[in-house]
Amino acid sequence: MTLSLDLEENKAMLPPTEAKAKAPVKKSFFRVWGPALIAIVGVLAVNLALLGPTGGNVPDLTDRHLAAKAEADRRINAVLEMDINVEADLAVTKAGHRGLYIPSAVDRNLSEDDGGVMEYTRRRHRFLGEYVHVDVSGDFTTFGKWSVSVIYFAFWIFLMFPNWFLPIGRPGIAMGGGLSMVVWRFVLLKTDHGPFFEAEKVIIMEPLFLLFGLMLTTIYLEKMERGGLFDKLRDSLDDPVNWKRSAKIMAMSTIGSAAVMNDSIVLIFSGVVVDLCVRHKVANSLPYLLSLATTANIGSALTMTGNPQNILIVSLAYDDISWTEFASNMVLPVLAATFVNSSLMFIYYASELFPGSTGFMQNLGIMFAGHRTPEMLAQEHAYYARQAAAKEGMVEEAATGWSIWSKIQVIVCVLFLTAFACGLDVCVVSIVAGAVLMVIASYKRQHFDPRPEHVEYDAEGNIMPPKKVYDMDGNEIEPEEEELVTESETTLTEVDYGLLMLFIGQFVLIGSFDDTGVPQAFFFKTMGGCADQMTSVPCVYWFVMVVTILSNLASNVPVVQMLAATFPFATPYDWIQVSFSATIGGNLTMLGSAANMIVAFQAAKVGDRTFTSERHAPFGIPSTLGALYLGTFILTLVHFSPECSVKLGQCDE
Questions:
Q1: pLDDT digit string (tens) for 177-213?
Q2: CA distance 146 to 3
Q3: For residue 162, with 0-12 CB atoms within 10 Å meaning exposed, 13-18 middle and 19 or more buried, which class applies?
Q4: Which end of the chain is less crowded, N or C, counting CB atoms within 10 A of the terminal residue's CB?
C-alpha cells in the first residue's frame, strides 16, 4: 500500500474527533482587539505618568531652547523683511534646473558664516516650491475650513473601508474625492470662503514616476521568461515550514527596503507572496502580507533613501544630515522595532504559523530546537512530494541553469541598484530600467520565441485546413504575414494605472486638507507647552504619538512638509525623531503608508482580498505602538545627531 503524502488525504485519515478538534474556531472580540486596546491604554498611561493628567508636567525651556527660538525668530523676521525680487528668484530657479551659474542671482545667497538664511528660505524653497507647504489657512473662513475637513474625512473613511459602501474600489473613490475637492474649492473661491486651489502643485510627481517605472520593471522581470530571475526570487522565499516562510519574507523586506525603497520592495514582492500562499494552499494569507508590509516600513526607516518622507527630510533639514549619520542613529531603533514586530507576528498568528502547536513554549521549541508537530511534518512531506512530482513531469530543456535572458535581467537589476546607490534620480533610473527590459523582451519575442500558432480543430479534434480567401475574379488571395502583437497591446496593459489614480486622488485630497491649517492647529493644540521642545524628555513620547496620528490622518509626506514650514530651523536630532515616528507610524492603519496601500492593491489584483483595514488594525496598532515607543526610548538614549543647529551657531556654546 502506498503511503499518501498529500495534506488533504492525511486530514481525511484522522479520527472524526480529532478532525473536529482541528476545525477553525471563531476568535472572540478580546482575542482580536485585546492587544490593540492594551497597547492604546499603555501609551496613554505612559504619557499621563510623564506629563500629568492635564499635561502640566512640561519642564521649563532651557537656555539652549530659548536661545535657539530667539535666533530662529530673528532670522525668519529678517527674511520676511527682505524685498521680493521675483525675476531674480525665477532666474535662480531656471539656472539651477539647467545647471548654469548666474552671478547676479547666485550672489544674493548669504555665506555659510552668515547662517545661509537666503540659502534656505529662498533658493531651496524656490527649487522645491511646489513641495513646500505654504500657509494659506488665513484665507479660509470658518465655514470653508470645516466643509473641506468634512469632505476630506468622509473620503478618508471611504478609502479606509471601501467594502462598506458601493463597490467602486479605492482608485475610483480617491479620484472621485479629488475631483469633488477641486469642485468644492472652486465654489469656496467664488463665494469668498477660501483661496484659489492650485491642485496641480499638491500632486507630488516623483512617487508617481517611481511607481510607474517600478511597475514596468516588475512586469518585464516576471513576464520575460519562465524560470527566470523573478521565479528564482520567488523560490528563494519558499519554505515548507510556515514560520520560516514568514521569517524569510520579513528579512528580505527589511533589508531590501533599507537598500532600495519600501514602495519598490512591496510592489515587486506582493504578487510573489500571494503566489506562495496559493502554492501552499494557505487558508489565511494575512500573516504573510503583513510580514511584507510592516517590515518594509520598518526597514525603510534605517536609511535616508528608504522612503519618500526620509528623502524629503534630508532635503528640507536646515543642517546637513549625511547618509552614515542618518543610518547610525537609526540602526538600534530599527532593530528594536523589528524585534517587536516579528515577535508579535509569531505570537498573534501562532495558529497559522505554527500549525498543531499547543502553545507559546512549544512554539519556542519549534523555532530554536527544531521540533516539529505532526501537521508541520505533513506539510513538509507534501511539499517535497510536490517538488519531486514536478521534476518528474517537467520536460527536459536543452539549456539548464541561468539562461542568457536571466543573466541580462541580473545585469539590468545590478545597474539599476548601482545607479541608485550613486545618487542618480531613482524615478528616472526605474523608468529607464523598465524601458530597457521592454526593448529586450520585444526583441526576444520577435527573434527567439516561437510564433503563436492559430490552428482550428473540428468537433472530432482533427486539424482543419486554413480558410482560403478569393477576390472578385476567383483568384486566391495569399494571406499576409501575420504581425506580432505589440507591447502596447500586451504587457503595457498590465501596468496598474488604477494605483496611480489612487495616489493622485489622495494627493489632491490631502493637499486641500493641509491648506485649511487644521492639521497644524491639531498639532499645536495637542502638543501644548511641548511644541517648543518637541524632542526633549518627556515631551518626545507625546510628540511621536501626535506625529503618528497626523501621519495616518494626513499622510506622512505632508506632515513632514508642514513641520518643515513650522519649524524651519529644527535640529538634526529633531528630524531623526520625526523620521522614525512618521515611518514606523505608517503601520498603524491601512492608510498610514503608501506601502500598505500597494500591498492591498497588488494582492487584490490577483484575487487575494484578505489584506483589509479591519484585519490590518488588530495587529497594526499593538505592533506599531510597541515598536514606536521602544525605538523612541532607545533613540533618546543613543543618538549621534546633535541636539543643536550647527548653522545657527548653537553647537559652539
A1: 999 999 999 999 999 999 999 888 788 777 788 888 8
A2: 69
A3: buried
A4: N
